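Protein folding task:
====================
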Amino acid sequence: MPHKPSKHEIILAPCEKNRDRIDYMFKLLDTDEKRLELVDTHRNKNLAHAFVTFAAAYGASLKFFADANPILISVSLFLLAVAFFLRDMRSHQYSHGWTLTIKKHLYTLSEVINAPQKPVNFKRYYKEGHKLAIRWKEWFSPTRLAYYVLFIGAFLSYFILKEGWIQKLSGKN
């Protein structure tokens, strides 16, 4: 019994010119690589925005809210870091999804080249790659470690603000 494709699968039927199928797969791979590059660029910008926003919020809290409750400021900084972290996690999942999609499309391209008269089934995007982003070793990647620094900074900001270390260092005590 032939394989029944799901609604998300594409069937690339054989044709007289296999070169057309090969060209289609190369165009698809080129598009996939551009999307992966876009997602990775978004992740890098998200990390840069997280650090700049965190530093600006911390600086503003020192300048304008010096008399405010240090717990509120620390919790606000922590929630800000969590928001950027969650955005990064989502982008990380898409990055793994596009990486798996590229690998599967390369395999499909090899099938098209090696078996020109065989129809080929594939998906436009493989969501199964999202599961690869939550493996234990992913929790210790450099990007994740940078977010952990923000979490620790939010935690330490409580003690810095409570004890007035910045004011003591600047001589405004």
About this structure: The chain has a mean pLDDT of 87. The radius of gyration is 25 Å. Residues 18-64 form the longest helix (47 residues). Residues 18-116+123-167 form one domain.
